Amino acid sequence: MAENNLKIVYLTSESYIDHSYTVVQELKKHADLVIFLQAREATVEIDRWCKKFGAEFVERKRFRNPLSFISEIFFLLKIRKMKPDVVWFNTMTVYQVLLADLLLDKFLVVMHDVDLHPESKDRHGLFSVKMTMKLALKKICAASRTQAEIFKRQHGFYPPVFQLPAINYYKETGDKAAVKPSDKVRFFFFGSVERYKGIEMLLDAAELLQKKGLKYELNIYGRIKYDEELIIDRIRSLVNASIYNEFIDYRKIHSVYINNDVLILPYRQVTQCGPLLIGYSEGVPSICSDLEGFREYVTEDVDGMMFDNTASGLAAKMEEIINDPESVKRLSRGIEENAMKKFSMQALAGEYIENFRKCAKA
Predict the structure, then answer these.
(1) Would you say 126 and 116 are in contact if contact means Cβ atoms under 8 Å apart?
(2) Residue ranges per structural domain of the chain
(3) Domain 169-343 falls in which CATH fold?
(4) What is the pTM (predicted TM-score) of this model?
């Protein structure tokens, strides 16, 4: 039995399998944790995850399936019989939002995006968020202090914060890979290419560097979700750039990080940023847009850099690193000495447990 005797039922989904891995790995040391992973189907990845943590897979039926509502009732009743101190939802289905307050005593739900991404097209997800805001407002937790402040401005009170930690999932589960040496600084963009992520600004910056004849590499990993031909043409026009226009399998992500030097995050809007948090675990620094969501996680010129949200500003930061490659090692040391002391799950676990205690006593 865990030291504080808290019994927590944790329900997560395949969308958050990486961050949940890091969270569960540490929380099991501090609480009696019962874990469920809900997904449409069981994959090899999910099966491995569940076996590692003794978690139970729960099939998530489609919203329109008439059995979905019934299955959710039985699932929540099963949880209630466990008599947990707190039920912690990493996300909720629409039916769970409707049923949780009726069937469960104490529960919390993490709202990962209080400030929704502008191009989000997940109708079911958006509807679920709206329903959660309407029916479970007092149960909502934020995944960062930036999002908590936005929530407070919107709703008048500050929610509990379950700060997203540095994500070690890919480092621990990825294929073993050798580091390929390079005599150039290797910049990279990682993740699906969507409008709000600002790939055009990165390409504009790369064009400015190309005009100066600077030697470096730019690797772009992720499926292009819009203007595909136009973006590919622009990338191919750059002497130093490569594009991997595909979904990157989770087993290859560790190799992507260790074979590049600096992550570029030219986002126009950010809530929390998975690629940044993966980078912290891998010791890979980032150059980020000067946005509130990044300022929360990045200490300028200590464990990363921020630019002024212009292509010329980004190009200047990249040029600074090209001219001083040793700065990559300095920033990487800063991640270990600064960022990880604040954002590792070991550092954050105490706040998580305190949130659970407050909920259990309420």
Answers:
(1) yes
(2) 7-165+345-361, 169-343
(3) Rossmann fold (3.40.50)
(4) 0.93
